[in-house]
Amino acid sequence: MRRNIFLCLLLLPLCLLLLLFLVWPMVLILWESFLVEGKLSLSNYLSMFTTKLYGDSLKTSLVLSLTTTIIGTVLGIPLSYALYRSGGRIKALMLSITPVPLTFSGLVVGFAFIILLGASGFITLLLSKIFNLNPLEFSSFLFTWKGLVVAYLYFLIPRMVLTMISAWSKADWSLVDAAYSLGASKWMTLRKVLLPMIWPAVLAGSSLLFAVSMGAFGTAFALSGTGVKILPLVIYTHVSEISVDIGKANALAIILALVTTVMIMVYERVFATKQ
């Protein structure tokens, strides 16, 4: 009994912090999303269906997030396997380097890509000399949604690699050896033995990539300002000094969270049944 009371007292500060900095702000955001000129209204939510900008920004966000999720997953799985199978100092070095991209803010990542791939960027100038490219034409992609795909992969692939490293480590490789000894082909072993063991990690990792991509703001803002119409940047325009509309911003934030959650739930439900 005393132990339970002691544990409750230890958890009390954490619960208060969560209530103050997580639950209460979410309640305020939800409440204010229904307010229009001080009155309760659904117009902020209905504008998602009546305002072309909002619908287009949601579609662009979904396309961008699905694209980066697929590419990040496809590249992250073999990279993580190669890292898992490596050994010695190389593996230790790579494991220490892999989380580094996750320590930088989105703005820093965006500006770093401008320094490297902008019109006067180091890589752009190097490639322009080797392949006789026009620096302005080559770097123009960086400030479109295609540039966001490249920049997002910088911090999405490491997330997938770190998720899958744990899965490779926990896999029962004796089952793989047993399948080979029974005459199973590599494809059959992969599909029937190895894939079911790592599939939960693939689902978890790709869901994480999608959620991070949907909510990413700093990198997109650094590269395109508000030029690429994705939902986080549209929300920003409603809380900036240029166009203040807190109610719409809150409603769009709620919609962004709901769409992300529903997409992940549907994705995991559909693909979990195909394990």
How would you summarize what this structure contains?
It contains 13 helices and two strands; from the N terminus they run αββαααααααααααα. Strand 1 and strand 2 form a beta hairpin.
Give structural notes.
The chain is mostly helical. It has 2 domains: 1-32; 46-272, MetI-like fold (Orthogonal Bundle). The chain is 79% helix and 1% strand. The protein contains 13 helices and 2 strands, in the order αββαααααααααααα. The protein has helices spanning 2-32, 43-50, 52-85, 88-97, 106-117, 122-131, 135-139, 145-170, 173-181, 186-215, 218-224, 231-239, 246-272; strands spanning 35-36, 39-40. The chain has a two-stranded antiparallel ribbon with strand order 1-2. β1 (35-36) and β2 (39-40) form a beta hairpin. α3 crosses α10 (186-215) and α10 (186-215) runs antiparallel to α13. It is globular. The two termini are 44 Å apart. The model has no long low-confidence stretch (mean pLDDT 87).
Order of helices and strands: HEEHHHHHHHHHHHH
Number of strands: 2
Low-confidence stretches: none
Give the overall shape, derived from the CA principal axes.
globular
CATH topology of the largest domain: MetI-like fold
**Fraction of residues in β-strands:** under 5%
Number of folding domains?
2
* Rg value: 23 Å
* Mean pLDDT, all residues: 87
Question: What's the name of the CATH homologous superfamily of the largest domain?
Answer: MetI-like
Strand line-up across the major sheet: 1-2
Q: Please identify, by name, the CATH architecture of the largest domain.
A: Orthogonal Bundle
